[in-house]
Amino acid sequence: MDEPLPTATVRTQVMVPLRFPDGYLTTARVYSFHGLVDGREHLAFGLGDRAVGGDRRAADLPPPLVRPHSECLTGDVFGSQRCDCGPQLREAVERIADAGGYLLYLRQEGRGIGLYAKLDAYALQDGGLDTYEANVALGRGADERDYTVAAQMLAALGVTRVALLSNNPDKAAQLDRLGVTVVARVLTGVHLSPTNAGYLAAKVSRADHALDLPFVP
User: Fold this and answer.
1) What is the pTM of this model?
2) Are the beta carbons of 126 and 120 closer than 8 angstroms?
3) Residues paired with residue 27 on neighbouring β-strands, in sequence order
């Protein structure tokens, strides 16, 4: 770890029943936190054996399956087909509920540039730029996400070792630098559609995401 991780603590925890549009049901123990470095309202969803037995320390359990999922209002809530965020969220909740672990819902819309800027980037993409080029054209970083808060949340939950549910190598690299041991990387499915093919191809070519695409547009 490059520098000491600022301490965060659990603020509240509450049981929340979850229902997805396809009818899938589960229950999560939802945690909020004090002391997160960016001051945003990030949440951890404890699923499976991490939803029940809240009095057990995470250190007493096997390494949890963990997905840091960056908020995507358009995809997660409204079902936008321009990305794969909504399907990845749905997949992650079921897989983590089966295996036991945490979904970390991080308020980092648009790879960290915000909702309005993301929509501005969409307009640039309609003109021919890819998702990373569009962010840069707006004067922003191609990917501004920082996973310090994810590491803080895990530390507050007593988690030091994880199986990481992600195709993005940067998540594993950042968590490792922040003192979280990634014991395994578990890949998500490929949620390909005619409208997000270019987006997924850019994630592979620009950021080395582990996606087995049948073609590159």
Assistant:
1) 0.92
2) no
3) 17
